[in-house]
Specification:
The complex is a heterotrimer of chains A (367), B (311) and C (533). By secondary structure, chain A is an all-alpha fold. Chain A has 14 helices and no strands. The longest helix of chain A is centred in the first third of the chain and has 29 residues, at 25-53. Chain C is an alpha/beta fold. Helices cover 35% and strands 23% of the residues of chain C. The longest helix of chain C has 16 residues, at 186-201. Mean pLDDT of chain C is 85; it is low at 1-16 and 259-266. Classes of the chains: A mainly alpha (367), B mainly alpha (311), C alpha/beta (533).
Chain lengths: 367, 311, 533
């Protein structure tokens, strides 16, 4: 599933396996420039123009973000902590996209996972040992995330209903459902603002060494790398990739496309649920009503930019976290609303598409 | 619950249903044309938002609702031009670009609104309403059916006009050919990219107008992220309506009613959280998809870029 | 109609420039020269046959004339003046209408809508006018079409008539028919031949593209032979008239293959059929729907070492039969036995492991994943099996070694096993897929159109391999739309029509008589029933 292939991805593009297959050495660097570095630079330039148009000096802004998120000790720690949920979402999307499924419902799966883990973990403190509290929280979050994808999964696998629409609808439903659950079911009776009970700081995921970095980061890294190895080095991964690249060839080879589709949804949505839990059990401790960081759609460009490659995704998530941390602070200091990161992400997606287009046509000419 | 069915409740329910339905109706009609032509326009949410922002800004600056609507159309079309160039001319992935446009419009409108109005949300004066003597004075349905802004009736007229165009002229079959088998249209001398570009721009115009209605008539002000999925519901309406404009109208009224229950119940003093009621339209969509999903047959070439001679 | 040229004695074209000229045209695609310095003239009043094998450059030439592609070198001319056909609409405006090999109609639209496709969007379809013109066409060319029917529900023959009618409604001067008989019965092809003669008599130029020798001679007034993208020779109307059919065919074969007619591989092979039945199919039926034909009551028996041919016009259930045997399509009735064991309920993977193999006709869309390297495609049907995977973990060296073995044993031409399979030519993909199907303990191989779209060398090699496979004692079910191929290889031939087997004949080498019998069954005549009656 590259930028230039179609929705159903049956007419697989010529370079879906660009990650796995070796690239011509001479052009490898050129390709890296056109399809990765080029779009990133172009996106920052485009966003700089927009900043300049609203009267903000882009150099000041970008400089501030770098300084705040990467070159200050605390900022760097915050950046590393922010990576955890994004990494789990990358794992979720790498599975889905490599298997040819557009799971656009990660926001709903994320929030429900978050709410369920926030609702259960504080009640289990003292009942179970600390590690078990966290394990149960994560497991329930993964389960609930996966459950939330069942309807789109069944509709896709057995009725051929386009999953873009069903996952989006379930996402909207999930966001509202999460908020309802916080207000009506899991509400902490001891607070005036509607929110869940809070997991005490000492019961959350342990911090790394002497820093404020949540160990969720480690689990996120493990998740992405495991998913990457699963997709590229195991028979199960090859089955999923075959279904994603060419469902007809998968049926022909004797693979059960419906069952593998269900598995893809379950795993992808499960990791989205884990993402929510990692934010709650690692950092926030509770869910406030109407809380929705909406990471889901924003991670998509990173996963595309990384060509569905785990290590690439980790690098990009690092920079993206830095951007998020920096822009939160910039919103207070420079008065640029944090929503500006959306503009940057959108420019990135569009420049990425253009880069891929240029690359595609260059190689067409070469052949 | 018997006390709920008061005149105030019903009146605000009807009024709210129509107010909520119009943006979805316009978006759905627009998306319908794109989907017929084979373009899955996920960017429609962004087009609505741009329409809402530009529509509000121009109405606010000029004190003219009609100029505001024109501004909304302009905002939608400008966003649609990006989509047309990238997805139709260059053949880039419609979903990725669509998501990009939606995210970009969300960020851009929030950014521009911030620098324009800082943290204030100025209101437009209440719009002029149509007043049909006798009819508008009818109880409950009077003000909601006959006391609306003229644009509401134009939206309903658009349903009829589109239905006639699809049925009576070559437009319907040209769009369907572009969506089902673009190569066939191409070798028959038709212009596949031309009709697809036209469809995408039309979608932008309709979505932009819908957004402007949402801001200028529905709310009377602009709030970042105010479309809240109305564009996505438009996509679903278009998918389920299977090419028929009248079904988009019916569907949008049903969704409008579900959405307006929120405000109507608040008027009636109910304490059900708004989230629950806001879930209704999305739950309804899922229910419809579960029941009729198999029959929501989409054009064969939906989402597939057309390149001449490619197999 | 014995020889079309006789009936056209008084309609020889004026000398000089034709309606369309092709002058020194060359067209390159990545890795191949599809058309190499070809010059041709097409005249009104003539059926001009472009004859050549698959890959000889015919389709590219059609694409250039239809405005889908532009030549890299050389140019086209219209009535003696140099012209560019940069788009399909430019080609249509120049009076050229093309009936493509694969239907270019929109299946969900009505016949009337397909006839008016391409008209400005704001106009109304001129129904009355078209109905009147269609009456004329019915009188003049025996074209009869239900205007309000949904196109996809009509037979392929009727769909082709729509495209011809569309060309005539546009008042075209030139009609191109690309492989127009591939979807037709032998009888339907004769009707098309007669219709083409009516068209040229009314002053049109017809360009008829085919790879079938006999059709070229029977239907054509002028024959140009293409070989590997270049013009190999041309037989003008006078020349053709002066020759007997035998002489003409000899001459054409020499041009096409560079050798005499007798030496083609159509010589009947010696049977290697044994006694033991390896595959037995009893009363097999599948569900059909609007898009896919169902199978009804199919019974077959295949012996070890035997080649059982399956003849029929494309789309009469052959693919469904292959899929049902491979386990890809569920049955509503019937029973399948392999080596006496009931495998009716076995999955695709189980059948493969038991030795039932299926080589699909759709090499790219179904047989392989274009973007995956050759190595992964080579083991696509053995995912998770040892020695390539151990406990679900991939053994990359084993997989690579296996791919290299296949590449060597089946002479696949490729830079290496890491090359994406989509970059290979059709013939090389076919070799690799064949290697994949023969891996391990194969008992029965189902071939679906194994030589379709291959060049001559690869066709020869493939046929040789199929014969070798049978000689090794495997049962071969050979589905093909090429009757010559079936007559050359098969021990027996089953004929399918409308999802049924209409009869099975011994391939006794009786030539024309057998061909005629098979042709009648392909048209739906039921030999089984006739014999019973």
């Amino acid at each position: 599933m590259t930028m230039e292939t179609d929705v159903n991805s049956s007419s697989a593009g010529t370079d879906t396996a660009g990650v796995a297959g070796p690239v011509n050495e001479r052009s490898a660097l050129q390709r890296l420039l056109t399809v990765t570095v080029g779009p990133i630079v172009a996106a920052f330039l485009l966003s700089a123009i927009i900043l300049a148009m609203v009267g903000v000096n882009p150099l000041t802004y970008y400089g501030y973000i770098l300084e705040r998120s990467l070159f200050s000790g605390l900022g760097l720690e915050q950046t590393a902590t922010r990576m955890a949920p994004l990494l789990f979402l990358c794992a979720s999307l790498i599975i889905a996209f490599r298997a040819g499924i557009w799971n656009l419902g990660t926001d709903g799966q994320f929030l429900l996972g978050a709410v369920v883990s926030a609702a259960t973990a504080p009640l289990l403190v003292g009942v179970l040992p600390g590690w078990a509290v966290l394990a149960v929280g994560f497991a329930l979050a993964a389960f609930v995330g996966a459950v939330w994808s069942i309807i789109p999964a069944l509709l896709k696998a057995y009725q051929g209903v386009n999953e873009i629409i069903t996952t989006l609808m379930m996402s909207f439903l999930g966001v509202l459902m999460a908020s309802t659950l916080v207000k009506l079911v899991f509400r902490d009776p001891n607070t005036t603002v509607p929110q869940t009970r809070t997991l005490p700081v000492e019961d959350r995921l342990p911090r790394l060494f002497e820093t404020s970095i949540s160990s969720g980061l480690v689990w996120g890294l493990v998740a992405v790398l495991l998913v990457h190895l699963m997709m590229t080095r195991t028979s199960f991964g090859l089955r999923l990739r075959t279904v994603g690249a060419n469902p007809a060839a998968a049926s022909h080879a004797g693979l059960s496309v419906p069952l593998l589709t269900l598995a893809t949804f379950g795993l992808s949505a499960g990791f989205a649920g884990l993402s929510g839990a990692s934010e709650i059990l690692g950092v926030a401790g509770n869910v406030r009503a109407n809380w929705n960081p909406a990471y889901g759609l924003m991670v998509i460009p990173l996963v595309f930019l990384a060509r569905f490659h785990g290590v690439g995704a980790i690098v990009l998530v690092f920079f993206y976290s830095a951007l998020l941390i920096g822009s939160e602070s910039a919103a207070r200091r420079l008065g640029v609303p944090q929503d500006f990161t959306l503009v940057l992400v959108a420019s990135l997606l569009i420049c990425l598409g253009l880069g891929e287009y240029i690359d595609h046509h260059k190689r067409k000419k070469e052949r | 619950m018997g006390g709920l069915l008061t005149e105030a409740f019903l009146s605000s329910l009807f009024t709210g249903a129509i107010v909520a339905a119009v943006p979805m109706l316009l978006a759905g009609l627009g998306e319908q044309m794109s989907e017929k032509a084979g373009v899955l326009n996920i960017g429609i949410e962004g087009m609505m938002l741009m329409g809402a922002y530009m529509g509000f800004l121009i109405a606010f600056k000029t004190d003219s609702l009609w100029l505001g609507f024109a501004g909304g159309i302009l905002g939608g079309v400008l966003t649609a031009i990006v989509m047309a160039i990238l997805c139709v001319r260059l053949g880039l992935n419609q979903i990725v670009i669509g998501i990009g446009l939606t995210l970009g419009a969300e960020g851009l409108t929030a950014l521009l609104h911030h620098f324009q109005f800082s943290r204030t949300y100025p209101r437009l004066p209440a719009p002029e309403r149509l007043n049909v003597p006798g009819l508008t004075d009818l109880p409950i349905i009077g003000p909601s059916l006959f006391g609306r802004h003229l644009i509401v009736y134009l939206a309903i007229a658009a349903v009829v006009v589109l239905a006639l165009l699809y049925r009576r002229t070559n437009l319907g079959m040209t769009l369907r050919a572009a969506g089902e088998r673009p190569a066939a249209l191409d070798v028959a001398g038709g212009n596949v990219l031309g009709i697809r570009v036209f469809a995408v721009l039309f979608t932008g115009a309709m979505a932009g107008l819908g957004g402007a209605y949402l801001a200028n008539i529905g709310a009377g002000l602009f709030i970042p992220f105010m479309t809240g999925g109305a564009g996505f519901i438009g996509i679903v309406l278009a998918m389920l309506a299977r090419g028929r404009p009248l079904w988009v109208l019916i569907g949008s009224l049903i969704f409008g009613a579900a959405l307006s229950l929120t405000t109507a119940l608040q008027v009636a003093g109910s304490n059900i959280p708004t989230d629950v009621i806001q879930m209704l339209p999305f739950a309804a969509v899922m229910l419809v998809l579960v029941l009729f999903g198999r029959r929501a047959k989409l054009p064969a070439a939906l989402g597939v870029a057309y390149e001449r001679g490619a197999r | 109609m014995a020889n079309a040229t006789d009936t056209l004695a008084n309609l020889s074209p004026e000398t000089g420039t034709g309606v369309i000229g092709v002058h020194g045209v060359t067209k390159r695609f990545p890795g191949v020269i599809a058309v190499n310095n070809v010059s041709l003239n097409f005249y009104p009043g003539e059926v001009h046959v472009l004859l050549g094998e698959n890959g000889a450059g015919k389709s590219t030439l059609v694409g250039i004339l239809a405005g889908l592609q532009e030549p890299d070198e050389g140019h086209l001319s219209l009535n003696g003046r140099e012209a560019r056909l940069a788009s399909p609409s430019a080609s249509l405006e120049a009076g050229i209408s093309t009936v493509f090999q694969h239907s270019m109609l929109v299946p969900t639209l009505t016949v009337l809508e397909n006839l008016t496709l391409g008209a400005p969007w704001y106009e109304r379809p001129p129904r009355a006018e078209i109905a009147a013109r269609m009456d004329e066409l019915q009188r003049d060319f025996a074209l009869s079409l239900p205007l309000d029917a949904i196109t996809g529900e009509l037979s392929l023959g009727q769909q082709q008539q729509i495209e011809i009618a569309r060309a005539l409604l546009r008042n075209s001067k030139v009609v191109i028919l690309d492989e127009a008989t591939s979807m037709l019965t032998p009888q339907g092809a004769e009707e098309l031949g007669a219709r083409m003669q009516k068209l040229v008599k009314s002053g049109l130029a017809v360009i008829f593209i085919t790879h079938k020798l006999a059709e070229a001679y029977r239907f054509g007034n002028r024959i140009s032979v293409l070989k590997q993208g270049a013009l190999a020779g041309e037989l003008g109307p006078e020349e053709l008239k002066a020759m007997s059919e035998e002489q003409a065919v000899d001459q054409i074969v020499r041009l096409m293959f560079g050798r005499a007619a007798g030496a083609t591989s159509s010589a009947h092979r010696k049977s290697s059929a044994g006694e033991q039945t390896v595959l037995k199919v009893q009363a097999l039926s599948t569900q059909g729907d609007a898009d896919v034909m169902g199978l009804a009551d199919i019974s077959l028996a295949l012996r070890a070492g035997e080649i059982l041919g399956v003849a029929g016009i494309d789309g009469n259930g052959q693919k469904q039969l292959a899929e049902a045997l491979a386990g890809q399509r569920s049955l509503i009735a019937g029973r399948v036995e392999l080596d006496g064991e009931d495998i009716t309920g076995a999955s695709v993977a189980q059948r493969r492991r038991k030795g039932l193999r299926y080589l699909t006709d759709d090499r790219l869309a179904e047989g392989s994943v274009a973007a995956f390297p050759i190595s992964e495609n080579a083991v696509l049907k053995d995912i998770g099996q040892s020695p390539f995977w151990v406990n679900g973990i991939e053994r990359p060296q084993r997989i690579a070694q296996h791919a290299r073995d296949l590449i060597a044993n089946f002479s696949v031409r490729t830079p290496g096993e890491t090359t994406p399979i989509g970059r290979l030519s059709g013939g090389n993909i076919q070799k690799l897929l064949l290697g994949r199907e023969l891996f391990g303990e194969a008992r029965v191989v189902v071939f679906n159109k194994p030589t379709y779209g291959l060049d001559l060398q690869n066709i020869e090699a493939s046929r040789k391999r199929i014969a070798e496979i049978a000689e090794r004692g495997l049962g071969v079910l050979l589905i093909s739309t090429d009757l010559d191929e079936l007559l050359a290889l098969s021990d027996r031939i089953a004929v399918m029509e409308g999802g049924r087997v209409r009869g099975t004949v011994e391939n006794d080498g009786s030539g024309e008589a057998l061909r005629l019998r098979i042709g009648r069954m392909m048209a739906g005549e039921d030999e089984n029933k006739r014999a019973a009656a």
